[in-house]
Amino acid sequence: MSLPPEKASELKQIIHQQLLKFFQMDVHGRIREVLAETVREELAPEQQQLSTEDLIRALRQRGIIDDVMKELKFVTDVNETERTLAPKPSTHFVDREPPVLKKTNIDPTRRYLYLQVLGGKAFLEHLQEPEPLPGQICSTFTLCLHFRNQRFRSKPVPCACEPDFQDGFLLEIHKDSLGDGSKMVDATTMLSICDPVHMVLIKTDTFGETTLVASYFLEWRSVLAAENGIASVAVELLGVGTESKVSVGVLSIRLEMYPQLSKTLSSEITSTQFTLERQKTAEKERLFLVYAKQWWREYLQIRPTHNARLVKIFAQDENGVNRPVCSYVRPLRAGRLLDAPRQAARFVSVLGYERAPVIGGGGGKQEQWCTLLAFLCRNKGDCEDHANLLCSLLLGFGLEAFVCVGTKAKGVPHTWVMTCGSDGTITFWESLTGHRYVHRPINPDDPPLVEQPKPLYPYRTIGCIFNHEKFFGNCQPSDAVEVCVFDLHDESKWKPMSGEAIKSVCAPGATSSVPPFPPLCASTIDAAVTSNEIEVQLRILVSEHRKDLGLSTVWDDQLSYLLSPALAAYELERTTGVCAGNEEFQDAVRRAVPDGHTFKGFPIHFVHRNARRAFATCLRSPFCEEIICCRGDQVRLAVRVRVFAYPESACAVWIMFACKYRSVL
After folding, report:
1. Are 145 and 115 in contact (CB under 8 A)?
2. What tens digit of pLDDT does each residue of 263-321 get?
3. CA separation for the pair 305, 322 (Å, rounded)
4. Mean pLDDT over residues 121-131, rounded?
5. What DSSP element (H or E) covers 186?
6. Phi, psi torsion values for 320, nearest 5 degrees
7. Distance between CA atoms of 372 and 387, rounded to whole angstroms?
8. CB of 621 closer than 8 Å to CB of 574
9. Could you tell me whether strands 112-121 and 247-258 are parallel, antiparallel, or unpaired per DSSP bridges?
10. Does domain 277-357+366-506 have CATH number 3.30.750?
11. Helix residue ranges, H only, 192-230
12. How far is CA 523 from CA 299, 339, 347, 476, 481, in A?
């Protein structure tokens, strides 16, 4: 049987490695010693030869065969192993065995970039931090990478002036490319791939709160002109937002091509390519800026009051770079992680909300529209980040979606999402809550006696709407949302921008300054196990709190279990808008509470998994405190936690406290 050339070379390499191990163990020398010793001790003078069985028995007695077998590693078919594994244990019993890391299968016909992070230095903000003690919880750094639809995350390392990053990432060069997918890409072709390696540094504090430290686009193609196909780079990371010009630290990075390039490029060729790309991008951006200025002048000439409207053509990202707002949106398909637009809205709403930090007072809003990778890795962001992601997901589901820029109550700037139905129905989607509102405009010219629809949405004014291909400025007499007519084909109501102009700077690959969109990652949270852990912690916190008040605590496990359907119904209602299962829950509670007893329940919703924080929030509610601190005869307490996991390890956490007690008048 003949082997393919790549399999033959792989087999040769494995044999070579095993022989090298035997050489390092000096197996041959040890066998010769055993042979000589056996001949001296066991061979009779009249016997002229030693049998193979005698030699093997002697080697086994001295442990040499066992040593060799330990060094041999047999590779089994992963699929066959998975088929023969026992079924997973019950969700409340966790397998504590350490995970076995599977080896990465490298396709010898593909080209890879091996990126190693070999430590950091000059993170001066952490200069005074002491060395963490063994087992002590400390703040950590995590490095997240995205390259050509591939995402990676480093192991968390303790925050320090010189963080000990020691990680390697194998990036496939031709991943998900169109055509030439099975062809070994050469250096000239790789030079034309202008996708950078997007690196995002996240800090996680001791309470689990995340902070965006730096966002950097690594130009990896310098390795194409490096000697031996290896390049070492010192990457200076700059801060974000108001600190985008301040250095936060330096990473030592090593780049290597696999397999090695048969022919490297000259540094003059690579530098010329980079210069041409920068010039091309700068020219496209200059032409779009000229067009945008002309469009804005025409918009102001329609009506002088347009100057006060929120018409946003450019926005700053986390690095302080001005980019057209249309470049922050792109159709995004979630694969099998999300099944419907309303589920996508629920997912976006459970990502944390946090306004961009501002140094100093004044109450001003710091503008910072994050790139999608930075938003997903930090797991929280401002309303603009939520709206951009929701609009991208709805576009991926085939809807005609736009991001709306305007204000809500008290003139606070806000962004939300709008979809246009094929029948003309306009629906507003609030990305921070997942709520949907159907828009029915008020006609100000109607007689006073005509009943007008009462808007339920919180939005007051709207200045512009946009997606990845279109941009419209609101040029109706009033920018109040309640009277707006969303006939986007009527240029007397909505002034459009040129689609070609938008495409020149916002289409994928149009310019090197527009970062590619990363794919969504599946959740790493075990919902059942996490629910159980939070519930156990809450029971301890409640018991301790009641003990401080001089009260005993008796838990009713059956009543706790009966609360589960209510929590599932609450999440279903948040996702679909449909309320179901309430009758069965009420019937079960009535059967569980005896006559003459009182039942009280309090549900609450969180988007974090910190039990102590959740408990402190619950105590601030007088209804919940009344349950937790319940006094009476035959008091029985119950608590149920249900965690619903979503992509990117986002989660919706529902908690319900309940009690039943005998009413004594």
Report:
1. yes
2. 888 999 999 999 999 999 999 999 999 999 999 999 999 988 999 999 999 999 999 99
3. 25
4. 81
5. none
6. 80, 15
7. 11
8. no
9. antiparallel
10. no
11. none
12. 45, 15, 11, 44, 37
Model confidence over 544-553: pLDDT tens digits? 999 999 999 9
What's the CA gap between 266 and 222, in Å, rounded? Answer: 10
DSSP code at position 163: -
On average, the pLDDT of the chain sits at: 85
Peptide bond into 594 cis (omega under 30): no
Q: What is the DSSP letter of 277?
A: H
Does 111-265 match 527-662 in CATH topology? no
Alpha-helical (H) ranges within 446-596 are 499-506, 527-548, 557-562, 564-576, 582-592
- Per this entry, what is the length of the chain? 665
Amino acid, res. 521: C
Other C-beta atoms closer than 10 Å to the C-beta of 517 total 19
Of 327, 295, 257, the C-alpha closest to 514 is: 327
- What is the average pLDDT across 507-536? 89
Helix (H) / strand (E) element for 599: namely strand 597-606
Reply yes or no on domain 527-662 having CATH 1.10.1740.10: no
Element (H, E) at 494: strand 494-496
CA distances from 597 to 390, 583, 663 (A): 47, 20, 5
DSSP 8-class letter at 409:
G
């069965």: which residue's tokens?
A: 584
SS3 content of the chain, % helix, strand, coil (to 5): 35, 25, 40
Q: Each residue of 377-405: pLDDT tens digit?
A: 999 999 999 999 999 999 999 999 999 99
- Please tell me whether residue 423 adopts helix, strand or coil conformation: coil
Most confident of 83-87, 192-196, 441-445, 518-522: 518-522
pLDDT at 314: 95
What is the edge-to-edge ordering of all strands in the sheet holding 400-408? 436-439, 426-429, 413-420, 400-408, 459-466, 471-474, 494-496
Query: Would you list the domain boundaries of the chain?
Result: 5-41+50-70, 111-265, 277-357+366-506, 527-662
Give per-residue pLDDT as tens, 556-614.
999 999 999 999 999 999 998 888 778 888 899 999 988 888 999 999 999 999 999 99
pLDDT higher than threshold 60 for residue 361: no
Task: Provide the pLDDT confidence category of residue 21 given band limits of 50, 70 and 90.
Answer: low
Question: Which CATH homologous superfamily contains domain 111-265?
Answer: C2 domain (2.60.40.150)
CA neighbor of 368 nearest in space, from 323, 308, 417: 323
d(CA 431, CA 414): 11
Q: 139 is written with which tokens?
A: 């703040």
